[in-house]
Design brief:
125 residues, mainly alpha, 6 helices, 2 strands, 8% strand
Length: 125
């Protein structure tokens, strides 16, 4: 439900969930290769490549030579993507404030602790 609501807000920016997710992942992992990005997104390298191609064509991402591996290319966000990233962050913060507005600070801390516990449990399996 959270994703659907965020998607509706982001749709006004003219991008899809796949596109904004890719842009955010690339922004948070400077110097990542297409393979690394695909792993983070849990998609095939080919799917990640097609989306990166599209975002490069739109001027939001760009590929560069990998400094240590001539066969690999790293992906980065462009200056054109910066205002979009700012807007995505703003929408995310606004959405988060609205979703958690009825929670006390203590409840938010408890929720965070429980989610951390769940993450630790799942990551052991």
């Amino acid at each position: 439900m959270l994703r659907q609501e965020f998607d509706r807000a982001v749709a006004e920016l003219g991008i899809t969930r796949s596109q904004w997710t890719m842009i955010v992942v690339v922004a948070r992992r400077p110097g990542a290769t297409q393979r690394e990005i695909a792993e983070v997104l849990d998609v095939s390298e080919a799917s990640a490549g097609r989306l990166i191609d599209r975002l490069c064509a739109d001027g939001l991402l760009e590929r560069h030579e990998h400094p240590d591996d001539r066969r690999a290319r790293v992906v980065s966000v462009t200056e054109k993507a910066r205002p979009l990233l700012d807007k995505l962050s703003e929408l995310g913060r606004s959405n988060e404030r609205r979703v958690f507005r009825d929670f006390s600070e203590t409840e938010l801390e408890s929720l965070s602790d429980l989610l951390d516990k769940l993450y630790r449990t799942l990551s052991r399996n």
